[in-house]
Amino acid sequence: MNEIVDRINAVHRELGTKSIPAGEGKVVLLRRSYDATVEDVWDACTDPERLARWFLPVAGELRVGGKYQLEGNAGGEILRCEPPRLLKVTWVLGENPTEKDVSEVELRLSAGAGGAAVLELEHAAVVDPDFWGTFGPGAVGVGWDTGLHGLAEHVAGEDFDEDAWQHTPEAKDFLTRSSRAWGEAHLAAGADPDVVAAAVEATTNFYAPAS
C-alpha cells in the first residue's frame, strides 16, 4: 500500500493550455524523478527493445521526420529528437483521423538533485468539451501515470507487463489513486468541485470498475 502511495505522490501533475497545429489544446503535464542517469532513462524511452519491456513494442522509421507506431496504440510522426534531452512526436489514435485528432507529446529530461533524472511528459490535445466535462484530465492522465509507473519498474531492473498488472488488486488501487490525483490537479487549475467529483468518478469507473 505505502509503495503505491509513494508512486502516486512521486509524480507532479499540472494542467494548462497550449496552441498546437490542431488548435488550442488542453495540456496535461507529469513530472517525476528516477534514480537513474538521464542517459539511461532516455535509452529506456527511445530504444525499441527496452521500450517493449515496460511500455509497448514500437515499429517504424525511428528518426526525425519518420513515422512510428506503438503496437495496439498510438502512432505518429517524430517531430524533434535531441538526445538525451528532448523527444517530441505527434500522437494519433484510430484510423482516418481528422486534423483535430492529432495531439502532441513532448518528453523532456534533465539532471536533478543527486544526479537523479527528472522526466517531464507533456501531452497537448484538442479535446471535445463534452468529453472533457465527463472525464476531465484523468482520461489521459491515468494512462500516463501507468506508463511512468512501468518506467520506474524498468529502470529499477524489473520488466513491466501492463496487461497482466491490470488485473491485480495493486493495479486497481493505483488507478483509483491516480484518478483522484488528477482530480486534485483539476481542482488546482480552477475547475468546479462538483464537475471534478463527477469526472473523477467517471474516470475511476472506466479504469478501475467495481468488480
From TrEMBL:
Belongs to the AHA1 family. CDD domains: SRPBCC_CalC_Aha1-like_6 (cd08899). This is SRPBCC family protein. Transmembrane segments: none annotated. It holds the Pfam family AHSA1. Residues 35-155 form the Activator of Hsp90 ATPase homologue 1/2-like C-terminal domain. SUPFAM superfamilies: Bet v1-like (SSF55961).
